[in-house]
Each structure stands twice: as structure tokens, then as C-alpha cells.
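Example record

One chain of 594 residues, shown exactly as stored in the release files.
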Amino acid sequence: MREVREAFARFWPLTRGDRRWLLLIVACVIVSALAETASILLFAELTDHALKAGSLAAFWGPAGAWLGVAVLGAIVGYLGNSLAVWTAERFVLRLRAGVFRHVQDLPPHFFQKHRQGDLVERLTGDVEAIEQMVVSGVVGTVSAVFSALFYSAAALWLRWDLALVTFLLAPLFLVAARRFAGRIRTAAQDERTADGAITSVVEESLGNVVLTQAYNRRRAEEKRLDNEARAWLRASVRGARASELYEQFVEVVETVCVLAVIGLGAWEIAQGRMSLGQLLAFAAFLGYLYPPIRDLGQLGLTLTAATAGAQRLQEILDAEPAVTDPAEPVRPWPVRGWVSFHGVSFRYPGGGAERDALHDVTFTARPGEFVLVTGPSGAGKSTLSKLLTRFYDPTEGVICLDGVPLTDVPLEFLRENVALLPQETLILHGTIRENIACGRPGASEKEIEGAARDADAHAFIDALPDAYDTEIAPGTAILSGGQLQRVALARAILRAAPVLVLDEPTTGLDGPAARRVVQPLRRLVSGRTTVMITHDLTLAPDADRILVVDGGRLVEEGTHEELMARGGVYAGLAGPMPVGAETTMRLLLPQPQP
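Predicted C-alpha cells for this chain:
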């Protein structure tokens, strides 16, 4: 039960704001239990004074009171149950929003270690399991406790000696629940893990359906799903068998108790110490008493199973964001665009890397300067973009924006002024207009269309049947890879941030598509401090400065002509330029202003 107490203590604070409703629900539960108790006592009175005596006159009073109590109980029960559902769903909404908010602050390596399908399961099924513990569990416990107290008190009032005999068997329910708790908890943990694995397999297979079909992997994917589904089946069956065994054991115990009461009651009636109405009422109280006691045992099993979800969710909540807002942030200022790295080294957390991804990197990008960063694969180029947009902080050294360390800058302000065009073409489910507008929420239609024109995207968007209202999604077949990249470029242009970070902007595009992206890229970088990380050196001649990273170190720095003349790492990456290619590129692209 220690795990249950710890999980409850962790999530109970989320009920703040709804606790007055929980008190009202408890009040409804108490009134409903009292109404049930009164109904049974009125039934005993009817039996002894109306049915046994055959008196219709003695029927109306108890019957009217019984009906009134039943109506009151029904109204209160409806209000209590409706309010309980509303409160439970509010708790789920609040908890899921809190977990989702926390997840969005976690660093990229967290998502590389966890399958997306498993995270989805934690945000859905595991959240609902915690609600069963914190809200429904509290209401169920209070309901069972008060019902058991009222029925026990009424049974003692009718015949205390007979009641005490029957109470001796009640602890068997709790003993049985304790014995079954371990097996049910283990099965619940395995079942939830398998649920996440199934979701992950389905998500991965649907996302890679082209690979599945092209490489005839249909049977392999079916086998993967079958393996996870069988693990879920085994865990589910184990849990169901344990729960069912507990239920059947309880049924037998209840039957023994009822038979004992009827036998003792028959003997009491024969001795003239008990009326038939009292016996029937006592049996009814017993019938009502054992279900709440049984529910308490079952609730213990439910809470035990819910700890599996709580532990999985706590694993997410205990994960620390790689960066946080500063305790004393600097005030916002009109950003000019000075970007500087001072002795920056970085090693990815928990990656087990034997060396730094970056080591002692120092450089400065002036306002409006176009700096191109290149180097061999795995040299640490993309790590620069993650540090500059502060997905991570340097292990050593300082990165500054206009001379202000990034660790002193609020994250929201930083990312409003340092725009990232990531390596992956990120597309949201929604219209083309919505995809562009997310670069600057609240932008006008004219501004959205202007950004699309600058990105060389307006023509193909306008040619679509629904134009800017065309629905697109990741992996959509409506637009080509190059067109989707230009939509992403329009988003970055609309953001109009003074500092721009481009991470492999032409990756995955063929020659013609890449050439269509070049002109919008030139317009995008014009007038902004731009750091472009790329292995595609098409724009290298137009860069104000080129930085060459190799093995995590900055090994070369200069213009295209200077680095080609040195014949170092950069010259090896660039290779010999075809005759006339540089002249053609100079004619194609506007020249940077001095």
C-alpha cells in the first residue's frame, strides 16, 4: 500500500478547486445511504404491521414514507453521481493538460528514448487510471464506509447479538483483497506496458506504410503486432482471472453469511424473540452490508492496479526539462541580432558518448550576416542549432544574443527572436493558411499571402481547388516535398525574427526542388542574422562567412574563396566547382549588400 499512498499524495493536490464539489458529493452519498437504511426499516414495519396482520390501514403510512424516502434517495443519488462524473472528468482534463504541458518542455533526447505510442498511452489510459485512484476512489471509499456504518448500526439496533456473529466473517473480504493485490498489480503493469507497445507498433507501421509495402514487410509488421498483442492478452487474462477469483470467493462468503443469518433467524422466530419483519429486515441489511465491504476490498485492488499507471506517469513528470526560464530574466529589448559563442562545449545528457558533441567552439555572427556552417556527417553541426535555440544549455562556455547570455533570456522571448527552420519539414494537421500562420499567430491574410509569395509558394497554393484552405497533414500527397518545404519557408518568413537558424533546409529535395527553394532562402536570409547548418554548399559562395566543424571542433573559418584556396577540410567537402557554376550562381542569386 506504500505505492498507493505515494501516488495518492503526488496527485491529490490536483483536486484543489474541486474539493468543495467532492464534499457535496460525499454529502449526497451519506444522504443516499441513510435513505436506503430508512427504506429497509420501513419495509420491516410494513411486513409486521400491514402484511402479517393483513391490515390495509396500516399499509398507507409506511408505504407513503417509503415512497418519499425512495424519491429523495433517487434525486440525491442522481445529483451526486452526475456531479461525481463531472468532477472526475475535470480532474482528468487538468491532469492530462499538466502532463502534456510538462512533456512539451522536455528535451529531444527524451523522445528518442520513448516510443511515441507509449507516450500516447500514458497520456490517455494511465491518466484515467489515476482518476480512478484520486477522485472515483475517494468517492467510492466514502460511499462504502458510510453505507457499511449505517447498515451495521441498523443491524445492531435490530439484533446486536446476531449482528456480531455475522460481522465476524466481514474481515475475510479484506484479507482476500490483500492476497490478490500483488497479482493484480503485476498484471496491470504488464497490461499497460503492452497497451503502449501496441499503440507504438500501429503508429510506426502506419507512418511507414510505404516502406512496409516496398520491402514486403507486411507479414513482419503483422508478426510485430501479434507479439505485442499476445503479451497484452496474457497480462489481461492474468488480471481478469485474479479479479474473477476474488469475486467468486466473495460470493461464497456472502452466501455462507446469509445462510447463517436465515438459520439463526428461524431459530430466533421459533423461540419468539424475533418477528418475521425483523428477520427480513436483518437479512436485507446484511445483503446491503456486504457489498460495501466487498467494494472496499475491490477498491483496494483497483487502487493497486492504478499504481501501475501512476508509476508510468510519474516517470514522465519526474523527467527534468533540459532548460528552464531564468529565475531573474532580463527585460525584453529590441534584438539587433548579434550571436556569439564563447568557448562552448557540449555533451548530450545520458547519451553515453565518449567525447563532446562540440568542444571549445568560439565565433560571432554580426547583425544581418549570413554564416554557413558545414562539415562531415556527425561533426556536430546540428548541435549548434539546438544550443542556439536553447533546446540545451552548453556544458561549458556561454552563448550570447546581443551580448546577453541565453540563460538570462526568457525562453518565449528567445524563440520569438531566434527562428528555427528544422531539418525535418514540419507540417501540422490543418489548412495551408494555418500552417503558415503558426509562424506568427494573429497575422493578417495579406501578411500570410505575402510570406507565401516571398517563399515562391503562392502560385501552387492558389492553383489548388481550395487554395489556402486546402487541408494538409504530415506525409500528405497533395504537395510535393519541395512545395511543403516552401510552405515551411513561408512560415519562417512570416515570423520575421531578427535571427534565423536553418538546419539542412534542402535535405531530401531533388535538384529541381532544391533550386526552387534557393531563391526563397536568399530572400529569407536577407537582412537577418542567419546561421545555416548544411552539407549542401550551393549557397556557400554567397555566405559572408563559412565555419567548418569537424569532430566537434571549429577547424576552419573564412569565405568560400579563402577556404577553397587553403585546400583544407572545406575544399575536400566542396570538391572542384564545375566551370561556370560559380558565375551562374552569382547571376541566379542577389548579391549580399556590403
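Notes: The chain has 21 helices and twelve strands.
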